[in-house]
């Protein structure tokens, strides 16, 4: 969010500062950088060192999966697969209240999409369900236990030695972990995402390449333009809504009290701006939850 008193020129300056300060922890840059096949393969190899990912398919950034027109879809940061295994890698900077439930929806939609169950005429066998690995790279400790990695599978409640083996794996990586529970290679990657390590501080070719790619990205005019357009959808619309709210507030204030009118008008203008931008973002393919997170608009107020 920006200061509500900023002018359009100040907003543009703030946007440029945001662009220059982006790191791998920002989903826009993460998706751009990790769409590189070799970098994506190395990242997944560090997360899952025991899996063979040599023949990993090209990554699809910002992939949208929607089972039907009337059904809510999902948008995945990085989607890729090898053989019968599918990987969804997300980068997460905000500690959302529903974060632990999101993987459940992702597993369902990814699995159904892989089975081609996306219309009344198509069907698939449950045996065709792939192994799905949903990974959230978090810049915070979601569970507060100090681990760098939290891996979840389905087990029998009465006998933890019995694994369901349904092929669904959910992994939360934590850049702020304190335990010695991951490989040095993965630890260096998490440290880099957190901004605690620079490429010239150690001999790790993967980290060096990531650092170089991020520097190149800052000079990529196409990517910069995409990012600015995304910010403008929100920032300029928000400012317009704010100004409209001020005008309405002044008018209302003549009869109901200037302070109350300004406050109510401002709040209404901001909310309308959030709502308008939310609708444009979802129409362009962004998931409702991601659009709500980006704009700060309460989806439950959609009928207001």
**Binned strand content:** 5-15%
- Tell me the domain tally: 2
Distance linking N and C termini: 23 Å
| Approximate helicity band | 40-55%
Mean pLDDT: 81
Strand arrangement across the biggest beta sheet: 1-2-3-4-6-5
Overall number of strands: 6
H/E order of the elements? HHHEEEHEEEHHHHH
Summed up, the helix count is: 9
| Major β-sheet profile | 6 strands, mixed
Instruction: Tell me the overall shape.
Output: globular
**C-alpha Rg (nearest Å):** 22 Å
User: Which structural class fits the helix and strand makeup?
Assistant: alpha/beta
pLDDT < 50 runs, ≥5 residues: 237-247, 257-262
Walk me through what this model shows.
The chain is of the alpha/beta class and 304 residues long. It is 46% helix and 14% strand. It is built from nine helices and six strands, in the order αααβββαβββααααα. The chain has a six-stranded mixed beta sheet with strand order 1-2-3-4-6-5, with helices on both faces. β2 and β3 form a beta hairpin. α1 packs across α7 (221-256).
């Amino acid at each position: 969010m920006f200061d509500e008193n900023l002018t359009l020129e100040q907003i543009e300056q703030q946007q440029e500062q945001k662009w220059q300060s982006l790191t791998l922890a920002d989903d826009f840059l993460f998706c751009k950088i990790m769409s590189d096949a070799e970098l994506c393969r190395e990242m997944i190899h560090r997360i899952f060192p025991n899996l063979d990912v040599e023949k990993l398919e090209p990554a699809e950034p910002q992939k949208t999966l929607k089972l039907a027109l009337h059904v809510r879809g999902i948008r995945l940061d990085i989607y890729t697969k090898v053989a019968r295994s599918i990987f969804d890698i997300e980068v997460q900077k905000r500690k959302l209240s529903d974060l632990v439930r999101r993987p459940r929806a992702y597993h369902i939609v990814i699995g159904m999409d892989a089975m081609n169950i996306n219309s009344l005429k198509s069907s698939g066998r449950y045996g065709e369900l792939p192994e799905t690995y949903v990974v959230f790279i978090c810049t915070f400790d979601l569970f507060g236990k100090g681990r760098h990695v939290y891996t979840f599978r389905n087990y029998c409640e009465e006998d933890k030695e019995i694994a369901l083996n349904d092929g669904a794996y959910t992994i939360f990586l934590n850049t702020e972990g304190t335990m010695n529970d991951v490989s040095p290679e993965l630890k260096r990657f998490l440290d880099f995402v957190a901004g605690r390590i620079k490429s010239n501080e150690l001999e790790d070719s993967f980290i060096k390449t990531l650092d170089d790619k991020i520097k190149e990205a800052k000079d990529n005019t196409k990517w910069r333009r995409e990012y600015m357009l995304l910010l403008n959808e929100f920032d300029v619309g928000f400012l317009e809504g704010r100004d409209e709210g001020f005008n309405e507030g002044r008018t209302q204030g003549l009869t109901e009290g200037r302070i109350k009118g300004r406050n109510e008008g401002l709040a209404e203008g901001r909310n309308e701006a959030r709502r308008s931008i939310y609708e444009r973002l979802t129409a362009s393919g962004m998931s409702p939850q991601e659009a709500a997170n980006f704009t700060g608009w309460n989806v439950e107020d959609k009928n207001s």
